[in-house]
Amino acid sequence: MTVMTEELKPAMQGYIPAVLATCSKDGEPNATIVSQVVWVDDEHVALSFQFFNKTIRNVRENPYASVLITHPSTLECWSLDLRYDHSETEGPLFDAMDMQLQAIASMTGMADVFKLKASDVYFVEAVTHRGRYFEPLPEGGS
In the CATH scheme, what is the code of domain 6-131? Predict the structure, then answer.
C-alpha cells in the first residue's frame, strides 16, 4: 500500500501547475496541465475535470495515469502513479474544488472559461521522488 506523506501537500497547492499524462487503450499518449491536484487522504487525490475531453476519454478507456507535482519552495518533484476510482459532481470535495477553481479563474481573467464538471478521484498506486527539475533562485531574487 502506498501512503503519501505530508511533504507532498505544498506541491498540491497549485502554485506550480501539475502535468497529467494519460494513454488511450490503443497506446496513444496525452499530456496536459491540471489546475488542481487535491489531497483527499493518504491514498487518494482528486483532479479537476474541466474540459479535458481527450484526457477523460483516455482515463475511461485506460484508468491509469501519472501526474507530476512540484513543491513551490524547494522545487522538488514527485510523480504519482494513479488509477481512476470515481467522479464526484456534488458534495464537500466538489464544492471545495469548485470554489478554488473559481478563485484561480478570477485571478487569471478566465472566470467565464473555467467550469468544474467533476472532481475525479484517483487511487495513488506509487509515489516516486524525481529530484529537482529546476534550481531555486539565489537569496535576494535574481
Answer: 2.30.110.10
CB 83 within 8 A of CB 125: yes
Dihedral sign from CA coordinates of 6, 17, 124, 92: positive
Please say whether the beta carbons of 72 and 15 come within 8 A. yes
Provide the residue ranges of all domains of the chain, joining segments of one domain with +: 6-131
Average pLDDT per consecutive 10 residues, the chain (142 residues; last block may be shorter): 78 88 94 89 88 82 95 92 95 90 66 75 95 72 58
Nearest in space to 63 (alpha carbons), one of 38, 87, 45, 82:
82
Three cell numbers written together for 60:
475511461
What is this structure's pTM? Answer: 0.84
One DSSP character per residue, the chain reads: -----GGGGGGGSSSS-EEEEEE-TTS-EEEEEES-EEEEETTEEEEEESS-HHHHHHHHHS-EEEEEEE-TTT-EEEEEEEEEEEEESSSHHHHHHHHHHHHHHHHHT-TTT----EEEEEEEEEEEEEEESSPPPPTT--
